[in-house]
Amino acid sequence: MDEHYEMLDVSGRIRTLLVAGDLAGASTTLTELGRRLGPHAVREERGVFAALREQGDFAAEVLDLEADHRAFDEILAGLDPTAPEFEQRVRTFLADLSLHIDRENLGVFPVTVVTLDDDGWETVARAHADDPADTPVTR
Fold first, then answer.
1. Fewer CB within a 10 Å sphere, N or C end of the chain?
2. SS3 of 63, please?
3. Which part of the chain is the Hemerythrin-like domain (predicted)?
4. DSSP string covering 89-111, please?
5. Is the dihedral of CA 59, 61, 62, 66 positive or negative?
């Protein structure tokens, strides 16, 4: 969840840049957000989401969250800072990302702490070992 808070902080910086009319700065900071979001999504999908699927838990929610990850990649790849709709598309993307993070932080993740068995936590640990984040896996 720490990575989520970091991404929300970056999102806040992007919003500030948009308010200031600094579209180039917003675009650069979006690139930074994308560099964080991509590896984070991979760790989630190979870790927590895979562990939940292995246990047969929350399959529909996991599929929806994974679909969001793919949509976020497509949106980021398609953003053009010179397009007239750039600012609105970025604002919509940031709102969608925030909602996605809430669904994970307030829904799937708290339940995961209670429901994952030892095999599930091993799956999570392997995902982080294969593509480590700055923070260790904790239960």
1. C
2. helix
3. 2-110
4. HHHHHHHHHHHHHHHIIIIIHHH
5. positive
